[in-house]
Amino acid sequence: MKKIVLSLGGSIILNKDGQPDILFLKSFKRLIEARVKKGERFIVITGGGSLCRILNKEMIKNFSVSSANLDWLGISVTRINAQLVKIVFGDLAMPEVIIDPTKKVIFNKKILLSGGWKPGRSTDFVATKLAEVYGANTVINLSNIDYVYDKDPRKFSDAQPIKKINWKRFRKEIVGLKWKPGMNAPFDPIASKLAEKLGLRVACLKGTDLQNLANFLDKKIFKGTVIEK
């Protein structure tokens, strides 16, 4: 069976109030269930999203807190989100959420869930590592943006979408080389380094556009950014 790695942004799973986006989760479930019937299996990694960044911001503002503790706070949020998505899929999902992506488990269900791992390693890195461990050659990164841009479109009106870019340019010009807890990047620097080493293809798509995701999976025309060698 074909294994597909999906990195699902926390800002898609939860709304701005921190509540589960039930309409999205039901639609996501229908799509994945339909794909499973076609013989595909999914490895889904959940992010922390805006809730993670809000918590980090408040802790930094009011307390003396280490980078490691900020990371653990974010990791806890991602694991809660993974448990939430596991509930959505019921018996289709493996019974336990993966907490160490380097340890291969017997993947005998249709869906495997994972959240964060350890300080200094984002869910982008977890997705990349799981792709390596389970033999997938593509990671689909589902976030709240249509494309990767050459600069922040929220700050620069002349920002241009990028449809295809190689890893060398992506790492040098877009995300840089250093990781920070709560970093908001299309695909983080440490994960990007590993993905380039492994020769992985990463597609960055808008996660709420599920028809677009289906188009990508079916090798049809889609909106998004592909990063590869």
Task: Indicate the CATH class.
Answer: Alpha Beta
CATH fold topology: Carbamate kinase
Cα-atom radius of gyration = 17 Å
String of helices and strands: EHHEHHEHEEEEHHEHE
Share of helix, binned: 40-55%
Say how many strands there are: 9
Task: Give a verbal description of the structure.
- Helix 3 runs antiparallel to helix 4 and helix 6 packs antiparallel against helix 7.
- Helices cover 42% and strands 18% of the residues.
- With 229 residues, the chain is α/β, with parallel strands linked by helices.
- It is built from eight helices and nine strands.
- It starts with a strand and ends with a strand.
- It has one domain: Carbamate kinase.
- The radius of gyration is 17 Å and the shape is globular.
- Strands 3-2-1-4-8-9-7 form a seven-stranded mixed beta sheet, with helices on both faces.
